[in-house]
């Protein structure tokens, strides 16, 4: 009996060690950190709007210049619980004013906090992982120029086992990758720029791609729409399928991102309003690139 218990105890220790190793947060290597360039705030402003940072991290209901105060507080209600966006203003205590560029890069590219814990993927680092380190540090440089807020956002409200962050290490092994989602097999610079914007900072797939029971994106139905993340309504299909935006021309897609009106003169609604307002701040060339990518990807039927 004692021998059996000893064997069970040994196996439990081994299993705990394996779990600990498999779930360890990943960080940039020392070589990757040393290679980070100096951030350019002017370039970072473009990344800021492409990434829609203000849509989640400004105060709920903020308009105009108030959207540049990144005090956090937005709630995302999901089947896993309620996620709340944090303060990412340059405030030293309430925000990220004491972070280094490496801290910010680890958060964006690895989903790992400065204290070494996993971030929940409500923060769309699964998309940001495809960004270039240069764009990441440019974004950080721009955020540091914005107003400070001392508001401390409330923590997430999650039940067991979702409140155990360590388990996200296994989730990341399955769903976190810096690889492009779509193999476009093209050298067209405009399409590739659009791919980068959509799959990376724009994180369009975070809403427009259905998710499985584990909360991972179903890449076989990339951008095919599906139930809204908060369970209220549906997110539209934005592939060139007839059930999506297949009838829209590239010029019409680009124009809709600029104006907020569809080719049939309907207007965007719900959370897409804020997205479109961000897209309107991009250059004509970048909006055209996004449109070119959306016309180049595989058409898929709208997800059920």
Mean pLDDT value:
89
| Total number of domains | 2
Number of helices: 13
Can you give the helix content as a percent range? 25-40%
Question: Low-confidence parts lasting 5 or more residues at pLDDT below 50?
Answer: none
Strand content: under 5%
| Count of beta strands | 5
Assign the structural class, choosing from mainly alpha, mainly beta, alpha/beta, alpha+beta, or little secondary structure: mainly alpha
Instruction: Note the gap between the termini.
Output: 54 Å
- The 3D shape can be described as globular
Strand order of the largest sheet: 1-2-3
Rounded to an integer in angstroms, the radius of gyration calculated over CA atoms is 21 Å
Q: Characterize the main sheet.
A: 3 strands, antiparallel
> What is the ordering of alpha helices and beta strands?
HHHHEEHHHEHHHEEHHH
Q: If you had to describe this structure to a student in words, what would you say it looks like?
A:
- This protein has a 3-stranded antiparallel beta sheet with strand order 1-2-3, with no helix packed on it. Strands 4-5 form a two-stranded antiparallel ribbon.
- It has 2 domains: 140 residues, no CATH class; 108 residues, Cytochrome Bc1 Complex, Chain D, domain 2 (Orthogonal Bundle).
- α3 packs across α7.
- The mean pLDDT is 89.
- The protein has 13 helices and 5 strands.
- The longest helix has 21 residues.
- Helix content is 40%, strand content 5%.
- The protein is mainly alpha-helical and 304 residues long.
């Amino acid at each position: 009996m004692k021998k059996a218990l000893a064997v069970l105890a040994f196996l439990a220790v081994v299993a705990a060690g394996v779990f600990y190793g498999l779930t360890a947060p990943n960080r940039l290597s020392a070589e990757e950190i040393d290679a980070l360039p100096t951030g350019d705030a002017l370039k970072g402003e473009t990344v800021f709007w492409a990434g829609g940072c203000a849509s989640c991290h400004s105060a709920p209901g903020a308009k105009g210049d108030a959207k540049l105060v990144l005090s956090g507080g937005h709630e995302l209600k999901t089947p896993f619980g309620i996620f709340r966006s944090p303060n990412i203003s340059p405030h030293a205590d309430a925000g990220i004013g004491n972070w280094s560029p490496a801290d910010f890069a680890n958060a964006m590219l690895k989903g790992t906090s400065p204290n070494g814990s996993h971030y929940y993927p409500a923060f769309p680092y699964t998309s940001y992982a495809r960004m270039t380190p240069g764009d990441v540090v440019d974004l950080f440089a721009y955020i540091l120029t914005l107003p400070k807020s001392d508001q401390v956002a409330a923590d997430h409200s999650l039940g067991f086992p979702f409140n155990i962050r360590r388990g996200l290490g296994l989730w990341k092994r399955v769903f976190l990758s810096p690889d492009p989602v779509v193999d476009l097999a093209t050298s067209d610079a405009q399409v590739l720029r659009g791919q980068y914007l959509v799959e990376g900072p724009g994180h369009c797939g975070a809403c427009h791609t259905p998710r499985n029971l584990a909360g991972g994106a179903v890449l076989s139905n990339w951008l095919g729409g599906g139930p809204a993340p908060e369970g209220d309504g549906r997110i539209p299909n934005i592939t060139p399928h007839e059930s999506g935006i297949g009838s829209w021309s590239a010029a019409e897609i680009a124009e809709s991102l600029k104006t907020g009106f569809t080719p049939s003169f309907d207007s965007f609604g719900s959370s897409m309003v804020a997205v479109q307002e961000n897209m309107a701040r991009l250059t004509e060339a970048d909006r055209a690139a996004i449109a070119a990518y959306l016309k180049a990807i595989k058409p898929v039927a709208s997800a059920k």
